[in-house]
Amino acid sequence: MSASAAFQVLIVGGGINGAGVARDLALRGVRVALVEKGEFGTGTTWASSGMIHGGLRYLQMDPEVTQHSCADSGAIQRIAPHLIFRIPFLMPVFPEDPIGPELVEVGLEMYDRFQPLKNGRPHTRLTREQALRLEPALSPRIDCAFSLDEWGVDAPRLVALNALDAAERGAEVHTHTEVRELLREGGSGRVRGARVRDRLSGEERNIEAEITLNCTGPWASQLAALAGAELRLRPAKGIHLVFERRVSDVAIYARGIDGRDMFTFPHEQNSMAGTTDDDFYGDLDRLEVTEDEVRYVLEAMDRSIPGIRRHRVIHTLAGVRPTLYGFGLYEDELSRDYAVIDHGTRQGVPGFWSLAGGKLAAYRLMAEDASDRICAALGVEEVCRTADTPLPGGDEWPDVGALARRFRTDWPAILRVAFRHGSRAARVLAARPRPHVVCACEPVTDAELAHVARSEGLGKLTDCSARVRLGVGACQGAACAGAAAEVVGEALGWSAERAAAEVAEFAGERWRALRPALAGSQLAAAEVHRAVHRGARPWSAPPPGTVSRP
Ligand SMILES: Cc1cc2nc3c(=O)[nH]c(=O)nc-3n(C[C@H](O)[C@H](O)[C@H](O)COP(=O)(O)OP(=O)(O)OC[C@H]3O[C@@H](n4cnc5c(N)ncnc54)[C@H](O)[C@@H]3O)c2cc1C
User: Fold this and answer.
1) 3-state helix, strand, coil in the chain (%, to 5)
2) Is 43 close to ligand 1, i.e. is its CB under 6 Å away?
3) Smallest Cα–Cα separation from 465: which of 496, 428, 502, 498?
4) Which of 382, 386, 514, 543 suits 185 as a labelling partner, its CA being 20 to 30 A distant?
5) What is the pLDDT of residue 113?
6) Is the CB of 463 under 6 A from ligand 1?
């Protein structure tokens, strides 16, 4: 190995897996760099259901995946207690269901054995009347229902916290930085880092490292090909619908026309419904949600929640699961297991490794496994500390009442800051003398925006959706993007033109997320509003990623 490499490990891909490994290695004192071509966590991780569960669906075929996901969920709850929330589920049983209540209960009894690992309660069988009293949104056609207990997390924020912690412990982390080419040694073909391009400035440079780790999720086969290695995945697209408000108090299982299990669940300030799971061979950088997919999800939900179509869908999410390759199986039957691959021993490409597959719920454990193996290859003896070392803000829940009094700001806004920043909430709020709410839907304060711009390496206004949930609520940025650009622009020294272009790009991104959920007169009205709004602006939207620095 080259003793002169600037870094011991270069990680490509700042989704949950790349950020998780960066933190693990940084905690062990390894010199590590992490590059992400967009904003942290905006690949598959952003599009996930954000559940740190065992996955009832995998219990039958993949009990080990259920076991390690439940165990890791317990660890994530320990290190980021501020960022998680309980999601109680109801699973209705209908008279026509092929699997009756007795059999359903056998499955749930098996799942109960794993519940203590993730601080979950055992299931309960409810009569029709009890279930309807508990959740009036449920269909009155049910025979009975079962309760089960799951947990959710703000997934992109979990990525940001891992990356932030890695940086605070010495890692070099860069967003909007894309690997275009891998550096190879002439004779041996060893990969010794990568040539990267800063997508905001256009500047290119080399990052040298002894080991380059591919954590690019569904893009992993493409990056492996740059190294002359092969990594076979079975990528599968999944979508979610996001509703303006909570559709139900608890999460509700539903069944698609093809029998697939889906659910509607309360998530942060909204409800989400999903998901689909279809083999995907398209362009990973241009994922579109189709009207068909929207109708498929609504159709499934309608059976369990007959009033669901009365609720407004405010945006859609699409992502591609980096599922490990399997032939001859339906998408749902594919294993959710993961693989750590040393392409040197497997394919004669030394210096190049991949971490692929898996689940958000088991990210920390996957990162530990990958880091153990990489450390063994590097001769590093430090052991993993991520299971018990709190993520930034995870050491203590702040006194929200005292913060509200000190900063003279409303409780809901303070609570959201506490949720995202935990014990660091006071430091975040102190970024402005008198914090006020910029995005009312979420709500997001100017202090939080100024803080993440100055202290968390924010690159663009669009980054704020994943970083602090700006513009993902009912107004989809219409009411807050301009004001937010002022705050972020002031912190980062943007010119007026740059701020205007950022707002235009933000609006374009939100429109692409909303457009598939609209039809008929709703679509016509939205297009008229959009045209009027655009006509009133003194700029036109540049294509994403082309905004130049002032
Ligand atoms: C619809 C859906 C729902 C899901 N729900 C759940 C759930 O509830 N619970 C659960 O446990 N799991 C869930 N999953 C699975 C989970 O989301 C994934 O396992 C996980 O997010 C994968 O993370 P990753 O870091 O491997 O990939 P990603 O999050 O995709 O990260 C890869 C990153 O690499 C970057 N990248 C790619 N190429 C380059 C390059 N050349 N240079 C620099 N950067 C690059 C990308 O921009 C991206 O950000 C779900 C998945 C889907 C699709």
Assistant:
1) 40, 20, 40
2) yes
3) 502
4) 382
5) 95
6) no
Ligand 1 contact, 162 CB (< 6 A): no
Please, which residues have CB within 8 angstroms of residue 24's CB and are 6 or more apart in sequence? 364, 367, 368, 370, 371, 384, 386
Cα–chain center distance at 529? 30
Degrees to nearest 5, angle at CA 68 with 63 and 74: 130
- What spacing in Å lies between the alpha carbon of 522 and ligand 1's midpoint? 32
The topology under which CATH files domain 7-44+156-234+336-378 is: FAD/NAD(P)-binding domain (3.50.50)
Atom 31 of ligand 1: nearest residue by CA position: 15
Position 526 scores a pLDDT of 82
* Nearest CA-CA partner of 438 in 396, 468, 466: 468
Q: Which helix (H) or strand (E) holds 69?
A: helix 63-79
pTM of the model: 0.95
Taking the centre of ligand 1 as the mean of its atom positions, its distance from the CA of residue 366, in whole angstroms, is 13
Q: Residue 127 — φ and ψ, nearest 5°? A: -70, 170
Instruction: Tell me the C-alpha distance between 360 and 339, whole Å.
Output: 14
Contact 398, 418 (CB under 8 A): yes
C-alpha 37 – ligand 1 centre gap (Å): 13
Phi, psi of 329 (to 5 degrees): -115, 150
pLDDT for the residue numbered 524: 84
Q: Is the pLDDT of residue 546 over 60?
A: no
Q: Is 37 in the pocket of ligand 1 (CB under 6 A)?
A: yes
DSSP 322: -
**Residue 436 per-residue DSSP state:** -
Q: Which atom of ligand 1 approaches the CA of 275 most closely?
A: 1
The ranges assigned to domains in the chain are 7-44+156-234+336-378, 86-151+235-322, 400-535
Question: Which residues have a Cβ under 8 Å from the Cβ of 213 and sit 6 or more positions away?
Answer: 9, 10, 11, 12, 18, 21, 353, 354, 355, 370, 374
Ligand 1 centroid–CA 536 distance in Å is 37
User: Which residue's CA is the closest to the ligand 1 atom numbered 50?
Assistant: 48
CATH number of the domain located at residue range(s) 86-151+235-322 in this protein: 3.30.9.10
72 in contact with ligand 1, CB cutoff 6 A = no
